Amino acid sequence: MPDTSRTAATRPSLTERRKAATQLEIARTAAALFAEQGADTTTAEDIARASGIALRTFYRYFRTKEDAVAPLLSSGVRQWIADLRDSPGDLPAPRALERAALRALTPDDEAEAQALHWTRGLIRAMETHPALLSVWLRVTHDAEQELAPVLAALAGREADPLEIRLASAAANTAMRVAVEVWATTDAPDHGPGGPAELAARCVHGLTAGLRLWDGPGGEAPAR
Known about the structure:
The protein is mostly helical. It contains 10 helices and no strands.
């Protein structure tokens, strides 16, 4: 019989899922307001009012107005890691990384395209708004921690913790740099110069030579 205890223990409760959905909706509202009127002039009260919640409720979820965009930024990161975790078992780890990078930064619908547009605006605003930059760096740091066990599983063998840590840092940095570089240009959301293409290039460039990929099934792809 399947072991359901592990699934029950790891699956978020209904309350947790509802809370996460509410936080993401507030994050989208905050990102839209930051894009429309600027991060400096947007207040937590503006975000709460536009979200249809009380200011007290807003502060129950977030400490600052800048913290409100964290769920939007982290949702894309979580999708990337989920795609990586679900990679085909016969796909070498470097290929799996590139595949997940392409999938994560290629919008499938209007909502994902809008989220990417907002992310671009937030990254541009970070240059003059250090509090937003702090949120972005925290999100990417957390992603590196979540990435490590996924890469360890993809490696398919007992790996040196140092190699896992290095691989996580390299892959995470590749994604962050790709998105940041794309955001500072006028390149399109799709195709040449788009975030997906840049991410695949960066992931290959920063992870292809890692020792973690040595051995059966882990060979880095030739170019």
